[in-house]
Amino acid sequence: MAHKLIHNCPVCGSGLHVVRLCCPSCGTQIEGDFETEQLLRLSEQQRSFVLSFVRSRGNIREMEKELGLSYPTVRARLDDIIRALDDGKPAPRTRQAPTRKQVLEMLSAGEISQDEAMEMISELQK
Prior knowledge:
Number of strands: 2
Largest sheet: 2 strands, antiparallel
């Protein structure tokens, strides 16, 4: 029975490297020092978020509904994942929090609900 691959050392928390690969079909084994993919370095919660993000085709509004989170919370989690993928560098600010005018435009276009608009505007006032 195969076990779920762990990505961090249970003793010190550092990232683990894979040192042996094995083909279950023919038994071939390869040894070395293999790095894991960037996405596998994310926590299980972060990987789950990424899968939800892809399923929603990157639509933050859909993410809000699926996860029951506010727009700012979804954005913050996305920024955390970007930071983790960039090895701790600050997440790029490609998109600032929307202005009041932008929120009203999104509401007018039907992209967000009235409740979402109110929540976003109240976040801007903090």
